[in-house]
Amino acid sequence: ELYFKNLSKQKQKEVMEKNGNNHKLRVCVATCNRADYSKLAPIMFGIKAEPQFFELDVVVLGSHLIDDYGNTYRMIEQDDFDIHTRLHTIVRGEDEAAMVESVGLALVKLPDVLNRLKPDIMIVHGDRFDALALATSAALMNIRILHIEGGEVSGTIDDSIRHAITKLAHYHVCCTRSAEQHLIAMCEDHDRILLAGCPSYDKLLSAKNKDYMSIIRMWLGEDVKPRDYIVALQHPVTTDIKHSIKMFELTLDALISFNKRTLVLFPNVDAGDKEMVRVMRKKGIEHHPNFRAVKHVPFDQFIQLVAHAGCMIGNSSCGVREVGAFGTPVINLGTRQTGRETGENVLHVRDADTQDKILHALQLQFGKQYPCSKIYGDGNAVPRILKFLKSIDLKEPLQKKFCFPPVKDNISQDIDHILETQSALSVDLGGTNLRVAIVSMKGEIVKKYTQLNPKTYEDRLDLILKMCVEAASEAVNLNCRILGVGISTGGRVNPREGIVLHSTKLIQEWSSVDLRTPISDALHLPVWVDNDGNCAALAERKFGHGKGIENFVTLITGTGIGGGIIHQHELIHGSSFCAAELGHIVVSLDGPECLCGSQGCIEAYASGIALQREAKKLHDEDLLLVEGMSMKKEEVVSAAHLIQAAKLGNTKAESILRTAGTALGLGVVNILHTMNPSLVILSGVLASHYVNAVKDVIHRQALSSVKTVDVVVSNLADPALLGAASLVLDYTTRRIY
Predict the structure, then answer these.
(1) At 420, is the secondary structure helix, strand, or coil?
(2) Which CDD domains does the annotation name (predicted)?
(3) Residues in the chain, pLDDT under 50
(4) Residue of 562, 552, 573, 585 whose CA lies nearest to 681
(5) Angle between helix 129-140 and 156-168 (nearest 10)
(6) Residues with a known catalytic role
(7) Helix (H, G, I), strand (E, B) or coil at 271
(8) What is the structure's pLDDT at 411?
(9) Measured at the alpha carbon of residue 635, what is the angle toward residues 650 and 689, in degrees to the nearest 5?
């Protein structure tokens, strides 16, 4: 819509003058099947209604002309359109080769048609193999192409075909904001992209409901009521035909068991379609009293059928696009529409081994009524498209231009570049200190900077930026090429967005903080952010004991207790980025209070803060110091004093450490029984004091099948900084994070 706000009436006059005052835009609309005609028909009606601006030529090919699919070209004739050319282009067959041969046949026949028509522009829809032949022919014959519904993401081979047509097309009409952004990301010229919405919505949102009962009775029987029947439409998935046939069998079994009147439409012309028809006949669908199997339903009537259905099931794009306009429940099966934007009315069944999962989905969805969704259109697509067509200047060069993002000069053959050390800028935000380091690919800390962590958000962010800029400048002198910035911080982090969601109490004013944007803007480098426990696990995976280990757990024992979990070589974040909060595993129902507000957490027993708390209690009772220990008057009691006292034979200090070690060990046992890792790595300043206690608890408490787990102390000097660096190094060099 913004495009037309900037398009003045004067511009339209200039275009008309350039094109010749009497020249009408000759538009060729090519339709291949019933589905694309439902999107193209509203545009065709609009073009036909303005004969002073347009001449319309209609070319029909593909499954429109096949009897098995209902000879759907007749509905084009019934809509009073003159069909200029009919092209029989479908090569009958049941495998992928038939689709390739059909494309080849269309490519052979289309040049003669286009030579005779000589259109100014051809309108092509969607992502079918027939449409690829149309776009290829038009592009090679220097005919402008307007592509409808480019930029969308679904599944199977359709994505590749859709994007291939996008690269051939000169103009683009897309349906959603996301699709528009995808087209821009694909380097298409923004001035030639129109966000119009789906043309079929112009018809959907103006559909009249007054006579829907007669339509329902015509297709499903006299005794059927609204919201008490199902519409099923399922197509083969050409990249996995066997699986899609199996899914169709399970769908029919579930529908038979569900025992509701069902209208089943025949599948599209695709590799595997004949096998699906055979499955229908094998199960007796065409003669079953609960089923009506049809090759085609006119779009006007189909609208009313899905609008008043109790549910639609299958893998048709219609289910995730058009049906949302009515709030009808939809069950989307398999991967054919993976990536499509959907409303809340769609329930996905990605995979099914038995009919039970599909049957359960039917029980959940059938008869519900959801809010109407207008993701794909607002009912005004056609007027926008007609304006867009009128604005096309035929005097402009035909060769399309791509809008590539700026690319820096290639210096890959410069000896200085080759000799640079690929490195990461690593940031560790601790409760006390803020540290920045330059870390090499081998895990060497080339240079490190340390400052006290400021107490306020503004001061902290300013200091981070200042230290990072300083380190990045110094990296040039050290011959280090900085690939990006990795940040390790306490609290809960959304690594996808680079945002600290909630901070620990040790770092104040550190919640809902976007770290990625300001640092990336200042340094012009990519930025990754993650929780310090996760970073420790990543450090072990890249540089430490976890290298090459498929499943392991890292526990940090320091001021607090944290950790990270590596499962099948990948870091686990969890659905709300709260995975591996290992310090808050509860090991006692009535234990000491934890900083999180709960009681009996591991952290309340075994963290540095917990040990300091117990040390202060002993000191206040004059029970801490033993022979060989001394403290200055102003010296603060710490966990280190408790450990020293235990080493010198203080039985009470020994008991506290034993309890802390037991609590940590019980937490590890719970982890073993939940995740079953092959390795547990204890990291942090307290790790060496706890390792034997943890092993003892595992030996006494764990199931025999996990007792053989290795428990080791980390040999990494700085896991937080190394882990933050691995965020950068793994992604930029091997793309595995």
Answers:
(1) coil
(2) ASKHA_NBD_ROK_GNE, GTB_UDP-GlcNAc_2-Epimerase
(3) 1-9, 410-413, 417-418, 735-737
(4) 552
(5) 20
(6) 532
(7) coil
(8) 42
(9) 40
Rounded distance between C-alpha atoms, residue 438 and residue 477, angstroms: 12
pLDDT of residue 93: 74
d(CA 72, CA 86): 12
Rounded to an integer, what distance in angstroms lies between the CA atom of residue 413 and that of residue 415? 6
Is 334 exposed, middle or buried (CB count within 10 Å of its CB: 0-12, 13-18, 19+)? Answer: buried
Instruction: Quote the CA–CA distance of 48 and 71 in Å, as a whole number.
Output: 23
> What's the CA gap between 132 and 97, in Å, rounded?
16
Tokens coding 53 = 């601006």
What is residue 334's three-state secondary structure? Answer: coil
Q: What are phi and psi of 490, to 5 degrees?
A: -70, 160
pLDDT digits (tens, 9 = 90+) for 216-240: 999 999 999 999 999 999 998 888 8
Query: Could you give the CA distance from residue 694 to residue 663 in angstroms, rounded to a whole number?
Result: 9
| pLDDT at 630 (0 to 100) | 85
- Max distance between CA atoms of the chain, in angstroms, equals 108
| Phi and psi, residue 626, nearest 5° | -130, 175
Round to whole Å and give the CA distance between 331 and 319.
8
Q: How far apart are the first and last CA of the chain?
A: 39
584 marked among binding-site residues: yes
pTM check: above 0.85: no
Nearest to 203 by CA among 31, 370, 40: 40
Domains of the chain: 23-198+381-391 (3.40.50.2000), 207-365 (3.40.50.2000), 421-544 (3.30.420.40), 546-715 (3.30.420.40)
CA dist 239 and 63 (Å) reads 20
468 is in an annotated binding site: no
User: In degrees, to the nearest 5, what angle opens at C-alpha 42 toward C-alphas 108 and 69?
Assistant: 50
Q: Which two tokens stand for residue 171?
A: 């103009």
Is 594 one of the annotated binding-site residues? Answer: yes
How far apart CA 658 and CA 655 sit, in angstroms, is 5
pLDDT of the residue at 735: 38
Tallying the residues shown for the chain, one arrives at 737
7 Ramachandran zone, left/alpha/beta (phi>0; psi -120 to 50): beta
Return the pLDDT at 555: 95
Q: What is the pLDDT of residue 59?
A: 96
